[in-house]
Amino acid sequence: MTNLIEYAAASDEVRAVYDDIRTTRQTEYINNFWKALANHPPTLRRTWETLKEVMGGEGDIDPLTRELIYIAVSVTNGCEYCIASHTAAARAKGLTEKVRGELLAIVATANSTNRLANGYQVPIDEQFR
């Protein structure tokens, strides 16, 4: 198991990222994902900056939809940690169990039909180009 770097044991560089996470998310909590990445501060910093920009930055996709997309990709990739953390974030943004069920049905269907299309090597219709 990866060593989790707590705030008290963190370098100044890591603490600066932790402080930004706390400020941005308006919480004192630093989750285990960030504590694990803190083992390599450049990866921690780069990943936080990217996530902060993509998930919290300006754009036409609303915050709940961003979380739903993240959950869908995490389910497809089999990332239990990301499924749990982004489901919690989505619930805080209004996710209901009914919508969660619909989302998971879409993910399951897309994975199934994607595999069929790939397996059959279906040529793309001209009208879809």
Automatic annotation (TrEMBL):
Keywords, comma-separated and alphabetical: Oxidoreductase, Peroxidase
Gene3D superfamilies associated with the record: AhpD-like (1.20.1290.10)
Q: Which domain of life is it from?
A: Bacteria
GO molecular function ontology, one term from the record: peroxiredoxin activity
Q: Which SUPFAM superfamilies match?
A: AhpD-like
Membrane-crossing segments per the record: none
Protein known as: Alkylhydroperoxidase like protein, AhpD family
Could you tell me which species this protein originates from? Pseudanabaena biceps PCC 7429
User: What phylogenetic lineage does the species belong to?
Assistant: Bacteria, Bacillati, Cyanobacteriota, Cyanophyceae, Pseudanabaenales
